[in-house]
Amino acid sequence: MTISIIVAVYNCEKYLRFCLESLTAQRCKDIEIILADDGSTDQSPLICEDYRKKDPRIKVIHKKNGGVSSARNAGLAAAGGEYITFVDADDWIDKDACDRIADQIEEGRLLYFWNLKRFFNDSVEGQRPIQKWNSITQAAADIIACPKYQNAYLRAAGAKVYHRKLLEGVRFPVQMYIGEDACFLMSCMKKLQSIDQIKIVNDSWYNYRIIQGSAVRRYKADLLQQSTAQYNYINNVITEMKIENDPAVITALTIFSWQIFMNLKSNSLKKKGISEDCRIWTGLTDTHLKDIRAEHGKMSKMQFLCRLLYRAAGEAGTERIVGIYERYKRRKDKHNSSDL
Predict the structure, then answer these.
(1) Which of 263, 330, 257, 311 is nearest to 288 (CA)?
(2) pLDDT by 10-residue block (mean), the chain, 340 residues
(3) Is 3-209 CATH 3.10.450.50?
């Protein structure tokens, strides 16, 4: 059994060596490490080549810049392992991660979910356990939008292991750089035949690094377009799966729609000026935003409040309340960061 570890690399010289040290330290020898350099302009390509010379398990791909999805897809095309996992170039894994993966492999399982640890400055946070599902539909619903009781990193491609059979014909959507992981996982859901093909292991060997000022936390001029592409992709998949009328999926789409609404408002506050994004988003997702069939017990308090406000005060009134909430959150986060 060979495990392929795919790392998309782009201008990450500050953290790349730490990541690669964790990969080359794996005691399990039956692995391959695929570094997909996505047209980096810093020292990352040289670092990749340096480690390739040191460890025969490493393969390096140099390609034109096309985004993280394009880089991961290039890694998938080159992967020869029976099992595949993804590690971001600014993250790292425990030195016995592949041994622990091998210990959990079972016949008939095609997709494995692990937990992870989150690191910010000098602090480390364990994450909420991944809740088990009774059906693929329930799993898909939680990937669409994590309910409040579910693991916050469920939608990420990392801390997962995929049997290569599951990934035949499945690739990351190259036009997306926001929500592409969730879309990739939804495509995996579509190929599964039984919930028994999924295994949840609430062990943590993946270490996720929070970086201040990263692309995730900066203003995004195309957030509405990226969110719309993700929304359309998810709707296409659930239609193909014929689960669009399932109560869990209806709830997930409501949660997803309100979370994006809040993200759009938060994004607009990062840049002064008037934004029409929330108004455009409500026009697109109006049915889901106010769907009374959604189970409010799975929604956060703010999402539930937004749904009530939207039905009573409309988009403009809801946006004003969300703006106040997002400003409060920002001040609170800034205060907490200064205390670290």
Answers:
(1) 257
(2) 97 98 94 98 98 97 97 98 98 97 97 95 88 97 95 96 98 96 98 98 95 69 97 98 97 97 95 90 96 94 95 94 90 58
(3) no
